[in-house]
Amino acid sequence: MKNTTLCYIEQDGMYLMMHRNKKNGDCNRDKWIGIGGHIEENESPYDCILREAKEETGLWLQAPSYRGLITFCSPCYETEFMHLFTANDFDGSLRADCPEGDLQWISREKLFSLPMWEGDKIFLHLMELPVPFFHLKLTYNADGVLLSHDLQFCGDSREPLLISACLLGTRCRYDGDTRPLSDAVLASLSARYLLIPICGEVLGGLSVPRLPAELQPNGTVIRSDGVDVTQKYLDGALEILKYAGYTNAKIALLKARSPSCGRGRIYDGSFTGTLTDGDGITAAALIKAGVRVYTEEEVDLLCGES
Ligand code: SF4
User: Fold this and answer.
1) How many domains does the chain have?
2) Same domain assignment for residues 203 and 299
3) Domain boundary residue among 153, 172, 198?
4) Partner of 263 for a Cys bridge, out of 9, 155, 283, 286, CB 3.0 to 4.6 A?
5) Per-residue pLDDT reduced to its tens digit, 218-235
6) Which range among 55-59, 79-83, 107-111, 173-177 shows the weakest confidence by mean pLDDT?
């Protein structure tokens, strides 16, 4: 059994990634991954990631967080336990001559378009969430195709619940504001569910604040200045479907009337405050994927459901 470490170092929304393009026979050849390597004799995973980060990047990590244990299974390689860390504090300067590959700070928007293992995308998404320590088993076939993933949150049996981030107090609305649920409701929800914050508009690449947009009768999403932002909304919904799939979330609590999150009734596209029947882009995608979607106006129903 092989034991390794991997760390994703993040600063100002950028991840330090390595393009593994230097070593012949590297099983990660030409892929982009984080920093790390084999655990040596008498090393703990923590010792290893500090050493590997220093050797590969020149940076001394400060208090990296131990986030999860990944088990890789493949007919081509020995089974591997990979100890996964994140870090956002470090000392030192980035070295320019890493022997294993080229180091580059990559924005979150570009991250998932890089060539990388399919399973890496799963734990990269998980690491963005406020979730407990997790065990993730990834099974690949001989061609490097991911066959299955099996996720367990350690010591936490609560059911995952996707929840609009603005209902949790995140200032992600178009006007930079938020619509938090009461403390009592949040406490009741947290007791039953593992809350997974999502915001389709931010995940789709829209900034905060931004101009308001509404879903039109023809299915496009148009900003108040007439610009078509449909693709951003679709991109955000796609990201949220990934979160739902990776975490096995079957329930969502979304913000009513939003062109992304609204369910049942949304603004009609005229920017006059008029409501019409319909679902926002993210809500519709989740419903189609079999997720039960509630709005905050139905939160009592959800508090009674487990
Ligand atoms: S997209 Fe959803 S989570 Fe994001 S601000 Fe709008 S309603 Fe809230």
Assistant:
1) 2
2) yes
3) 153
4) 283
5) 999 999 999 999 999 999
6) 107-111
Ligand 1 proximal residues by C-beta, below 6 Å? 164-166, 172-173, 199-201, 255, 258, 260-261
* Alpha carbons 27 and 227: distance in angstroms, whole number: 45
Asked if residue 136 and residue 163 are part of one domain, the reply reads no
Contact partners, residue 190, CB within 8 Å, separation at least 6: none
pLDDT above 70 covers a percentage of the chain that reads 99
**29 lies in the same domain as 127:** yes
How far does residue 184's CA lie from ligand 1's centre (Å)?
21
Q: What is the DSSP string of 201-246?
A: HHHTT--SS---EEE-TTS-EEETTS-B-HHHHHHHHHHHHHHHHH
Q: Which of 195, 214, 255 to mutate to test the pocket of ligand 1 (most atoms within 8 A of CB)?
A: 255
Report the DSSP beta bridge partners of residue 140.
146
86 and 172 fall within a common domain:
no
Average pLDDT over the chain, rounded to whole? Answer: 95
- Measured from the Cα of 174, ligand 1's closest atom is 5
22 pLDDT band, cuts 50/70/90, is confident
Going by CA atoms, what residue is nearest to atom 4 of ligand 1?
Answer: 199
DSSP letter for each residue of 67-125: EEEEEEEETTEEEEEEEEEEE--EES---S--SSSEEEEEEHHHHTTS---HHHHHHHH
**Cα-to-centroid distance, 304 and ligand 1 (Å):** 24
Q: Which among 166, 175, 214, 281 is the best mutation to test ligand 1's pocket, defined by most ligand atoms within 8 Å of the CB?
A: 166
Q: Which residue among 106, 133, 153 closes a domain? A: 153
CATH number at residue 14: 3.90.79.10
Question: Domain range spanning residue 30?
Answer: 2-153
The residue whose C-alpha atom lies closest to atom 6 belonging to ligand 1 is 173
Kindly report the protein residue whose alpha carbon is nearest to atom 8 of ligand 1. 166
CA 288 to centroid of chain Cα atoms = 20
